[in-house]
Amino acid sequence: MGSGNPTRELVLEAYNLFGKDAHVSTILSLGSGHLGALAAPSMGSKDKWTDVLGDMVKGCGQVAQEMETQMGHLRVYYRFSVEQGLQRIYGVDWNDVSWLNAQIHSYLEDAQVSQKLDRCVESLRLREGQVTLEQLSM
């Protein structure tokens, strides 16, 4: 529950596993849309759970923003997240993916998103913008 956006943890774990001199060409972060208003679980204090869920929602976006600020100029970090997402899943048949597909299609039609996706694909294909894990962990 504490890592709705585990990008920082990813960099730290890679640093610990592969060392500071290992190279990274692309970090791809996929979000699942804004959670919107969620009902708190029935167990425990409603206010407590509402606060926890609210912090998670804010935390995901905040981490994405911080990572963009920290790594954006290195051209290795790409974050994609539809505008709407999980709030529709709760109480909806999981087999009905037409609404989610419509959200994804709408998201990908945005010119800025499309350009960023093209840059991400190029980064993956050409391994451009390689940086060390030491550079990412600063």
Task: List how many beta strands DSSP finds.
Answer: 4
| Overall pLDDT | 76
User: How many domains is the backbone divided into?
Assistant: 1
Q: Alpha-carbon distance between the termini?
A: 25 Å
The main sheet comes to: 2 strands, antiparallel
Oligomerization category of the chains in this entry: single chain
Form type: globular
The number of helical runs is: 6
- Low-confidence segments: none
Quick overview:
With 138 residues, the protein is mostly helical. It has helices spanning 7-18, 46-71, 86-89, 98-109, 111-126, 133-136, and strands at 23-24, 27-30, 77-80, 131-132. Helix 2 (46-71) links the parallel strand 2 (27-30) and strand 3 (77-80).
Report on the architecture of this protein.
It contains six helices and four strands; from the N terminus they run αββαβαααβα. The protein has one domain. Helix 2 links the parallel strand 2 (27-30) and strand 3 (77-80). It is mainly α and 138 residues long. The strands form two sheets. It has a two-stranded antiparallel sheet with strand order 1-4.
